[in-house]
Amino acid sequence: MMKSPICEMLGIEFPLLAFTHCRDVVVAVSKAGGMGVFGAVSLPPDRLKEELDWIVDHIDGKPFGVDLIVPNKIEGKSEPFDAAKLMQMIPKAHTEFTDGLMREYGIDPVDLSAARQGSATSAINMREEGAATSMEVAFQYPIKLIVNALGVPPKSMMDMAKQHGVATGALVGAKEHAVNQVNAGVDMLIVAGGEAGGHCGDVSTMVLIPEVARAVQEMGASTPILAAGGITTGEQMAASMAMGAHGAWCGSVWLTTAEAETNPVVKEKMLAASSRDTVRSRSRTGKHSRQLRTPWTDAWEAEDAPNPLPMPLQSMVSEPPLRYIDKISEGGHEGAKQLATYWVGQGVGLMNQAMSAGQVVQQFKEDYLTACERLMGTLEE
Questions:
Q1: Contact indicator for 253, 235 with CB cutoff of 8 Å
Q2: Pairing between strand 289-292 and 198-199?
């Protein structure tokens, strides 16, 4: 076991955590000595149970975790959940914009109203009452960590985690957010720089890690830090730990692995992409998230594009057509292949070789050791 408070807290060999929506990646990373963390926000309770049953059956007793998204700010949070009302809040201009974009690339827009209604599952899971249902399922399993993104975990999550002896983690993109999380009593900070895929702030990882590490130290706290944001190699992990982190949290690097759920068309785009082929935009969820740049993302950044709606309304606008685009792109539709995109960080420029998830963990270990030896070499006379 490597010397890190993350390893001690979670009972893992190497402080590399994998955020993923793919159960196979969770299992592969945990078996390789890191820890898989399953992204569960989009799943209803029965599907979450099904996925966690599979993980437990295949992970050989290795530690794993669950990630939820319970934002501190979300449209309609203070009101009773009403999927029909959310649907009515989506302006016609936004759905017409997505339909027009699809037509431009030779795709006949299908009626996505039912899919948009169905996407309310994710919307309710982002509210405390929906997350509580997911947590009731998750805490029936031997998870070692539960993570919240987009804000301080709700009290129900903190209380249930404490009751079950499970560590809590939270993603932060700014120093003040980290201070709030430490004051709230989270066990682990996942400090994500703006290079990250998915939801991210605008401060770079190189600046944010030492900024948060110093802030935590000045508070007299010992909350361990996982570095995140553009990290796809063991050398980057070592650099982050030299700046005060205790391990790494990675999401993008698993998207091109053999086990990943990624659309094969998008996977090939990622393997060919440079670090400049991503965009940080509100157009997918209503909050800033980094995605692979395609004509879809370019269209939303154009001057004549409608302004993105608040979360979760923008997800209800964008996710159904993007899922349909994924489906037909895999069937060979050329226009859909061009439009297809997914969340990914700037580290995509370093993701140019297809590997298994276990091989990625092994490569991280080797590159981390090489980087440490290189640093030690600078001290030799």
A1: no
A2: antiparallel
Tell me how far apart the alpha carbons of residues 190 and 246 are, in angstroms, rounded to a whole number. 10
Structure tokens at 29: 């990373």
Does the pLDDT of residue 119 top 80, yes or no? no
36 and 25 Cβ atoms separated by less than 8 Å: yes
Buried-exposed string 176-202: b where 16+ CB fall within 10 A, e elsewhere = ebbbbbbeeebbbbbbbbbbbbbbbbe
Whole-number Å distance between alpha carbons of 71 and 150: 5
Q: How many CB atoms sit inside 10 A of residue 372's CB?
A: 15
CB atoms within 10 A of CB 11: 11
Q: Which two tokens stand for residue 221?
A: 């706290």
Do the Cβ atoms of 189 and 178 come closer than 8 Å? yes
Mean confidence (pLDDT) of the chain: 92
Residue in the structure block whose two tokens are 């004509």:
295
Q: Has residue 122 got a pLDDT over 90?
A: no
For the chain, domains (ranges, CATH) are 5-74+126-251 (3.20.20.70)
List the beta strands (DSSP E) in 70-207.
Answer: 145-149, 167-172, 188-192, 198-199
Q: Cα separation of 261 and 281, whole Å? A: 23
CB within 8 A of 3, min separation 6: which ones?
none
Looking at residue 309, its pLDDT comes to 96
Q: Is the pLDDT of residue 206 over 60?
A: yes
pTM comes to 0.93
- Does residue 179 carry a pLDDT above 80? yes
Average of per-residue pLDDT across 246-251: 98
